[in-house]
Amino acid sequence: MFKENIFKDKTILVTGGGTGLGRSMATYFSGLGANVVIASRKLEVIQKTAQEMEKQTGNPVLGLQHDVRDYRNIKNLIAEITNRFGQIDALVNNAAGNFISPTEHLSYKAFDTIVDIVLRGSYYLTLAFGKYWIEHKIPGTVLSTVTTYASTGSGYVVPSSIAKAGVLNLTRSLAAEWGKYKIRLNAIAPGPFPTKGAWDRLLPDPSMAKAMEQRIPLKRVGKHEELCHLAAYLLSDYSAYITGDVITIDGGEMLAGAGEFNFLEQLSEEEWQVMLEKRKR
Ligand code: HXC
Ligand code: NAP
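^ Those are the sequences you sent over. The predicted structure of the assembly is below.
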């Protein structure tokens, strides 16, 4: 979809880039010429992924251990990245934690764990990178992976829902405040995109995944490359005038759930005939 090397000489950090959607996005950016940095808690996973990615794309990939809840380590993170690549141009807040549960079964620590990874982790990195970009007059870009329920709310994933809503608000608030520094912040709200991390925790029974697919107007889950195209667009200069926005990529799932009469999709032809006959009376 994009010209080769649109990210040449650009350095992009993807948190949680060792697995799932983070890995797919980081690989795609690397293929488009970026210097890619991936960071998460599991050093072994990160280093192995970095090596495989480098082999696949031929561009440099740096794998670093970093827990997004650790503000103090960000100084080292920035130092390691700038020592290797000179500067940092973009941050992708992708790392997350989540589980499905009736809320009344959750401890306050369960809430803390998710909110700390998703919300605190995102604002720690965004704040530190913003300071770095402002000091060095770099027109940085932030992209955060939220969810469609960041806007609507959702039961059974309440810690994640409130944390993602906070990340979306951070995106909008700082887009207004930091535009003067040429810093752009946007978000992507994906519907279901199969990954081991999300599926094991959120859709442990295959029937749940099937039911989810059926209620999506396009009748399928997302493909990783579809999300990667959108992410590359939002990080690149092709979207230079877009900031503070969230783009939903969900095959219509969110709107299907919201529309008053969308449930009528379940009616058979025969049931429709009866309905239409009744209307004539
Ligand atoms: C209820 C749980 C729980 C569960 C943990 N806890 N798992 N409560 N249900 N399934 C509680 C624990 O009892 C504990 O509270 C507290 O949470 C911390 O648990 P730890 O296991 O010590 O946490 P930690 O080792 O830091 O692991 C974090 C984690 C884990 C979030 C629990 O799942 C993880 O590392 N996840 C990272 C990857 C991930 O979640 N990916 C999915 C993203 S998908 P107590 O009180 O007992 O001490 C996503 C997609 C959304 O966001 C949209 C899809 C369509
Ligand atoms: P995933 O593979 O489980 O990715 C989560 C990543 O976050 C892992 O690589 C994990 O690595 C990292 N992580 C967790 N806690 C961390 C911490 N404290 N510090 C640093 N890194 C941490 O799941 P995914 O499906 O690809 O999710 C990626 C993003 O997309 C998340 O933001 C998720 O909310 C969002 N999303 C996904 C879907 C979907 O359908 N898949 C839908 C909507 C939104 P370590 O364990 O090594 O730390």
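The mean pLDDT is 97. The domain at 11-280 is CATH 3.40.50.720 (Rossmann fold).

Shout if you want it in another format.
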